[in-house]
Design brief:
Elements lengths: L10 E7 L6 H4 L9 E5 L2 E5 L6 H8 L3 H6 L14 E5 L2 E2 L7 E5 L4 E6 L2 E7 L2 E2 L8 E10 L3 E2 L2 H9 L7 E2 L10 E5 L5 E3 L10 E3 L3 E2 L2 H8 L7 E5 L3 E5 L4 E5 L10 H11 L8 H10 L5 E2 L5
Parallel strand pairs: 6-17, 9-15, 14-16
Antiparallel strand pairs: 1-2, 2-5, 3-4, 6-7, 7-8, 10-13, 10-17, 11-12, 13-14, 18-19, 19-20
């Protein structure tokens, strides 16, 4: 019986045609990402629930929405889990195409991928900016790396605290109450960074003031595999398609920033661009788009 995977997770060695073709408008970039053979990250396994675990904590750790996790197990997230419950977990995600080494963050997917030597070295579920405090898109570089950082609270967050009637703080020293956790990787997006958290159950949510937040174990692992000056890109692609040589996979996420008004049209566009439309079951495509569960799901037509 498998337990929850580590931050880098399991990967299925699928030689997939990862058709994450994102337009300049969606990627926040001046160039289009192109297709190449990649992999589908994640796996399917059985998990035995331990004491203290919940739909939220498990979903945050594996990168699956708690409601989706519950529904796929024939349950509802309103009913608490009990130690000894057995869950089936499917956290397969299509890795977006990326032509460079470095970090790739897909906002609606709430995943961070670290590419090295042309392949995805590791992948992690993340928390990203709230719809009213969006994570910016486009290229970036790592401009600072700190262990046990002090959080210098941005003026915008100080003002938010003031409006909410909360105590306004200007800085938080290193320690267990520091929301940045133990590791900070500052990005060339002003005060934004990739960092840890003191609230691991917030991972895989749209919950931050624009930063990219990782589980404490994941940010520690990533911190020791990147260097100052490393490049990266933040994209916005809620619809992804892949082909493993026999099955076509479709992964669709909600569109919290309202940048893609028609997910079905986007899915059909990607299938056409990759010459895969003739291989799929269109009712399955419609269902996956409608449910937007955020899991790579086979949509191949029956043979």
């Amino acid at each position: 019986m498998h337990s929850i995977t580590s931050g880098s997770g399991k990967t299925i060695a699928v030689h997939a045609l990862a058709v994450a073709l994102a337009s300049a408008a969606l990627c926040g970039s001046g160039r289009q990402l192109t297709a190449h053979r990649g992999i589908i990250a994640g796996d399917r396994w059985v998990h035995l629930v331990s004491s203290g675990e919940s739909w939220t904590t498990i979903g945050a750790r594996v990168g699956v929405d708690p409601e989706v996790l519950a529904v796929r197990n024939g349950q509802t997230a309103r009913v608490p889990l009990k130690p000894g419950d057995v869950l089936g977990i499917d956290n397969r995600h299509i890795i977006p195409t990326y032509e460079d080494d470095g970090l790739l963050i897909n906002v609606p997917q709430r995943m961070l991928f670290h590419f090295s030597r042309g392949v995805s070295r590791a992948h992690y579920p993340v928390a990203v900016g709230r719809p009213d405090w969006r994570t910016p898109l486009g290229p970036f570089s790592i401009v600072a790396m700190e262990t046990d950082p002090t959080w210098d609270v941005p003026l915008s967050i100080q003002e938010e605290l003031r409006r909410a009637g909360k105590r306004v703080v200007t800085s938080v020293p290193p320690g267990p109450s520091n929301p940045l956790g133990r590791y900070w990787m500052g990005l060339s997006f002003g005060s934004l960074g990739v960092h840890g958290t003191t609230a691991p159950s917030s991972i895989y949510h749209f919950a931050t003031h624009g930063c990219i937040r990782l589980h404490p174990d994941d940010v520690e692992e990533l911190f020791h595999h990147v260097i100052p000056g490393e490049q990266g890109r933040i994209i916005y692609e809620p619809v992804l398609v892949a082909f493993d040589g026999s099955d076509v996979y479709l992964e669709v996420h909600p569109d919290p920033y309202r940048r893609m008004p028609n997910a079905l049209l986007r899915a059909l566009e990607l299938l056409d661009l990759s010459a895969l439309r003739g291989l799929v079951d269109l009712p399955d495509v419609v269902r996956v788009v409608r449910d937007a569960e955020g899991v790579a799901t086979p949509v191949t037509a029956p043979h």
